[in-house]
Amino acid sequence: MKSFRLIIILLVILCVVFLAFSMFSFNGLQSEKKTRIATENSLKELMAQKDGLQSQLDEQKKLKSDLETQLADLKGRVTSLQDQAEKLAAQIADERKSKEEAVAKLGDKDKEIEEVRTNWESEKNSRAELQGQYDKLQKEYASVQKKLDDLQATNQTLSKQVEDLQAKKEVELDKIVVKPGVEAEGKVLVVNKEFNFIVVAAGNNKGIVPGVVFGVYREGKLIAKAQVEKVYETMSAANMMPDSGDVREGDIAKAM
After folding, report:
1. Above pLDDT 90, what percent of the chain?
2. Looking at beta carbons, which pairs linking 239-248 to residues 24 or more positions away fall under 8 Å?
3. Mean pLDDT, rounded, for 135-155
4. What is the pLDDT of residue 1?
5. Would you state the pLDDT for residue 183?
6. Do 208 and 193 meet the contact criterion of CB atoms below 8 Å apart?
7. By the 8 A CB rule, do 232 and 149 touch?
C-alpha cells in the first residue's frame, strides 16, 4: 500500500515536472519566435535602409559625375580665357612698346602724355572758340566789305565827276602814274588785330604796288610799319611788321 502511494506521488511529481518543463519550453519557443520576428523586422528595415542608402549613393555618384563633367568644361573655359588673356596681354605689351618707342622718337615723353591727356578736354572748347572766331571774322569781313563797297561807290562817283568835268572842258589828260613818295599817303580805314593787317586809303591811284612799306603816323610821330600785300584801285591791304605799335583807324599811312 505504501509502495503504491509512493508510485502515485512519483507519478504526480513527474507530471508536475513534465508540465512545468512543457510550459517552460512553450514560453521559450514563443520568446524565440518573437525574437526571430523582431530580428526579421530589423533585417527588413536594414535592407530598406540599405536600398535607400544605395539609391542615395547612386544619386551621389551621378551628381559627382555631372560635377566632374562641369569641372572639366570649366577647366577648358579657364584655359581658353587664360590663352585669350595672354594674347591680350601680349597685344597690350606690343602697343605699349610701340607707344613708348613713338614717344621716345618725339623726345618729349612727359609732354606727349600730357598733351594726350588734355587734348580731349581742349577739343570740346576748340569748336566753340573756332565758331566764335569764325562769326567774328564774318562780321569783320562784312564790315570791311561794306567799307570797301562804300569806298568803291565813292570812287565811282568821283570818277564819274571827273569824266563829266573832262567832257565839259574837252581836255584830254594823260594817265598819271604816281610813284611812292611824299604824296603816296592815305588814312587807315580798317585795323584787323586778329590777322594783323590794315587797309589804307591809297592804292593804284597813288602808285602803290605790292611790297611798298607804309609808315603809320599819329600826330606826326611814327608808331608802326606795314608792308603792302594787295593793291586795289583806291586802297591797299598791308600786313603789320614786327615791333609795330597800336594802330587805330584814322591814323595816317605814308609810303616810305
Report:
1. 26
2. 239/196, 239/197, 240/196, 240/197, 240/198, 241/213, 244/216, 245/216, 247/188, 247/191, 247/198, 247/216, 247/223, 248/188, 248/191, 248/218
3. 73
4. 67
5. 61
6. no
7. no
Among all chains, which residue has been given the C-alpha cell 563797297? Answer: 149
Q: Taking Cα atoms as reference points, which of 227, 181, 235, 175 lies closest to residue 203? A: 235
Q: Over 50: is that where the pLDDT of 108 sits?
A: yes
- From 187, 198, 108, 178, select the one nearest 154 (Cα to Cα): 187
Choose among 162, 139, 147: nearest CA to 235.
147
Residue 251 grid coordinates = 591814323
Rounded CA separation 216/234 (Å): 18
Mean pLDDT of the chain: 80
According to the per-residue pLDDT averaged within each range, which of 7-21, 170-184, 235-249 is highest? 235-249
CA distance 244 to 199: 15
Q: Are residues 187 and 199 in contact, defined by beta-carbon separation less than 8 angstroms?
A: no
The C-alpha cell 584655359 sits at 79
Enter the pTM of the model: 0.34
Quote the CA–CA distance of 47 and 55 in Å, as a whole number. Answer: 12
- Report the C-alpha gap between 169 and 242 in whole angstroms: 49
Which 3 state secondary structure label does DSSP give 239? strand
